[in-house]
Every structure is written in structure tokens, then in C-alpha cells.
Write a structure and sequence with these properties.
Length: 317
């Protein structure tokens, strides 16, 4: 423009003013803007730019940066995209997989052990002696059966006498007495019973009467495994009539305690007022506690007294 003005000094400056009033910066080949001069002669600051002089940013997007060798290597190793931490994550994932495998292994072992043990729901019988359950199924089943019956698992180291009998108590007759009889079998196949031994204790557990009874009939089954009676015991025993009278005198006017007493009174050919009988087999609260309509004496002793009785041959005392 200046050159044009120099060549044509008479030409009006309208053309020059038209160009100089534009405030847009001029671009040069190196991509940098140069200052522009406005109509008043002031310099307008131009902003630097990285745009190419032959187009806008849209036409010439920036070149993509090449991936680093580490990233490319991670991609080759794992087959997936990685940000440089692929090896660490892979190692961490390996540890997690190992821990999960250990947990599954422990869980499988626990399930196998649980399958080997009897489930409490399977031990449904409550009228069977836990010792019989232990012999047939195993100690774990017997333990569950005892727990269902409310039995104590720990047994006392003391004897039955030490647990039940008061050492310094009276040895005489008391208002209440307890009686039990041992019997042997007579008749065909030993199905009928006769009395072979009678034992009576007072309310403190002291034995006040214990005699063997001479048999009134020929014994066909001594039932030794249960009764504990042997031929020599009863062959030299007391006469039945004597024993019957002595027992009747003791029971007269007293409360009689026992288990299934109707059987004991039957073999003695005795009777006793019903209101003075306390039969542990027929006592309703006991039957409810062991959930059995006809609980055994052995089960009641284990359940209520935490003592073992009748573990081998029975003893009427």
C-alpha cells in the first residue's frame, strides 16, 4: 500500500484506509501473526497460533502421538489395552484367583465334613437310649440325641451312691420310701415273672431293706444279664411269705415311690392306696420333659439326675 501511494501520490487514500481499518491480523508463511495497524495508527497485538497458514484446525487435525514401546509391549502380552500397569494388575488378578481357589477348596472340605456328620434333623427318635444310638450310628448321633432330650453331656465322676445318697442322713424309716424288685422268669420260655429280690430305701436314699427271695416255682430264665440274679442268690433266699409280710409292714401308711410300681406290687401280691403312690413312669411332667409316654428309669435318671444306672446288670437298690 505504501508502494502504491508512492507510485500514485495523487490517488486518494480511501483504498489505503479501507485496508488499514481492518483489525484482523495478517498471517505469514511461518504460521505466526504479525501486528496490524488500525486506522488511527495504533498497533494491535496479535495472538500466536499453531494453525497452519493453508487451512483451519478442522482441515488439519493434529497428528496422532505414537504409542510408547511399553504400552505396545503390554498390549502384546495381555492381548488387551493397557496403560502401563498391565503387569501389576495381571499379578494382582493372579493372587485374587488363587485366593478364590483356596476359599472354594476350604468350603468344599467343610461341606464334605458336614456330609459325613449326622444332621440333627435326621436324629428324630427320642424314645431310644442314646447309648444304643451310639452303638448303632456313632458318638455324634448319640450326642445329638442327648441334646434333643436335654441330657447333660458331661457325666459325674462320682458313683451313684455318692450322688444320690446323703451320707449323714437318717438310716431309719421315713414318711416316704422307694421300692424296686428284680424278677426271674418261670413257665414256658420264662415269660411269666416271680420276685427274686426286693429292695427299699428311705427318702434320703439309705437302704432299709434288701433281701433275695426263694423261688416259689421252677425258674426257667434267670434273666441274669438284666436282673443280675443267679441260682445261688435265690436258692438260699428268704421265704416269699416272710418277705411279703415284712414289705407290707414297711409300706403301711407311707408314700411309695418307684418306677412302674404296678409290676412290683403284682409279683409281691400286694396292694397300696393309689393316692400314696408316686410312680415316676406315670408322672406327667417327667413324660413331657423326655417326650415319651412311657420313659425308662434309665432315661429319667440320666435326664433328671445326670447319673448312669442299669449300664450292665440291674441292681434294685
Amino acid at each position: 500500500l505504501l508502494k502504491q501511494k508512492a507510485d500514485n501520490p495523487k490517488e486518494p487514500l480511501s483504498t489505503c484506509q479501507t485496508y488499514t481499518k481492518k483489525k484482523h491480523p495478517l498471517k505469514v508463511g511461518n504460521g505466526q501473526e504479525v501486528p496490524a495497524i488500525n486506522g488511527k495508527g495504533n498497533v494491535v497485538k496479535a495472538k500466536s497460533t499453531n494453525k497452519m497458514d493453508n487451512g483451519s484446525a478442522k482441515d488439519n487435525p493434529p497428528l496422532a502421538k505414537p504409542k510408547s514401546k511399553k504400552v505396545a509391549m503390554d498390549k502384546n502380552l495381555s492381548g488387551t489395552k493397557s496403560d502401563g500397569k498391565g503387569c501389576k494388575e495381571k499379578k494382582k488378578n493372579g493372587n485374587i484367583l488363587k485366593e478364590n481357589g483356596d476359599i472354594k477348596h476350604k468350603r468344599r472340605k467343610a461341606e464334605e465334613r458336614a456330609e459325613q456328620q449326622p444332621k440333627e434333623a435326621e436324629i428324630w427318635f427320642d424314645d431310644v437310649d442314646p447309648k444304643d444310638i451310639e452303638a448303632a450310628i456313632g458318638p455324634e448321633a448319640a450326642k445329638i440325641a442327648r441334646r434333643n432330650l436335654g441330657l447333660e453331656t458331661g457325666q459325674s465322676n462320682q458313683s451313684v451312691e455318692q450322688v444320690l445318697v446323703k451320707e449323714k442322713a437318717s438310716e431309719g424309716l421315713t414318711r416316704a420310701v422307694a421300692m424296686d424288685c428284680e424278677m426271674v422268669g418261670v413257665g414256658p420260655k420264662g415269660e411269666d415273672s416271680i420276685v427274686a429280690r426286693v429292695s427299699i430305701v428311705n427318702q434320703f436314699g439309705k437302704c432299709i431293706y434288701d433281701k433275695y427271695v426263694k423261688p416259689t416255682e421252677e425258674v426257667t430264665d434267670y434273666r441274669t444279664a438284666v436282673s443280675g440274679i443267679r441260682p445261688e442268690n435265690i436258692n438260699t433266699g428268704e421265704d416269699f411269705k416272710t418277705v411279703q409280710k415284712e414289705v407290707a409292714d414297711i409300706l403301711n401308711g407311707r408314700i411309695l415311690v418307684g418306677h412302674a410300681l404296678r409290676n412290683d406290687l403284682k409279683v409281691l401280691f400286694l396292694d397300696h392306696p393309689q393316692k400314696k403312690i408316686r410312680d415316676t413312669q406315670r408322672y406327667k411332667p417327667f413324660r413331657q420333659r423326655v417326650k415319651n409316654a412311657r420313659p425308662s428309669l434309665k432315661l429319667l435318671c440320666e435326664r433328671l439326675l445326670n447319673v448312669q444306672v442299669q449300664t450292665s446288670e440291674h441292681c434294685s437298690v
